[in-house]
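For practice. Supply one:
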Amino acid sequence: MNPGRKLEPRLAKLSAWKWFPAVAGLLIALLITAGSLGFGWIEHQRALEEERSVALGHLSLARARLEGALNDRLLLGRGLVSYVSLHPDITHEEFQSYAASLVGRDPMVRNISLIKNTSIVDAYPFKGNEKAIGVDLAQIPSQRPAIMKVIETRKPIIDGPLDLVQGGRGLIHRVPVLLGSGGTYWGQVSVVLNQVTLLVEANLEEKCDGLCYALRKRDEAGTLGDLFWGSEAVLKRDPVVLDVVFPSGSWQLAAAPETSWGRQDRVSAWVIAAGLLAALASGYLVFRTLSASRRIEELESILPICANCKKIRDDQGYWEQVDLYFTNASNLRFSHGICPDCAKTLYGVEKKTPAKEGS
């Protein structure tokens, strides 16, 4: 048995339902709306990935500039450490001369301090830093942890930003001075870098290229520390991040839009808007088409019949006998006879009519 024949009566019954055009139009509108929303979401995700990719490109350039500017200055401390390791009895004049040759007129290097054990014994430039001479950094709570860490690990670190004994805030690169093959601890060399000058040289601003930037520390274990530059709001906006790596540690550089991701994506909004308009137009068109089709079917089902002779008018406007009309329009075949009323009228013969059931 053909399954299609079973469905035909159901489909005919469904199409004859009073609300069928409205429901069909609504379903078409909902399907197109769902499609436009899905396509709009896909387009939004693509635009979002593209926006993050562009932001990551800006961030990569900023990191490269920052690493370059920072690593250039870190080499200064290592050069001075090598000299002091060979000349542990370095005089004030020798220290000033050697430090001057290293620093030159670099505006980023605020000063270089020579620390024996944990106390500052010399500083360059000497003028303006006289009050720091003789200060035991191990007695200053903000600097003691870094001083002791260098002594324990025998490795250089970057400390800060923090409040300096000389005044102001800065980054301090601390490098241990070790004597002999056994690596006996003698002291440290600290290079104080001006944080503002470092960021300016790296062309890094808190707001640049439509992005907000922030920096925070990362310890040796990889754990992220406190934010020391920028706004905490950046870290709450799902930022793109990169590590700023240098020989004695690393920072995390983060960037995020000033407001939120996806604000510049207008294509997906237009796609959704166009989809909604298309859904409304298509739904209305389906409703009108089905309603008109039903109206046509209703009009076609009305047969014009003569009130007197009972002839039926066909589609071409010709009037035909009832039996001839239905024979031509369908597979019906007629057998002819005479009803009791006509038999009496024509021949005067009365024919008995079978009684109806229930009468």
About this structure: The chain has nine helices and twelve strands.
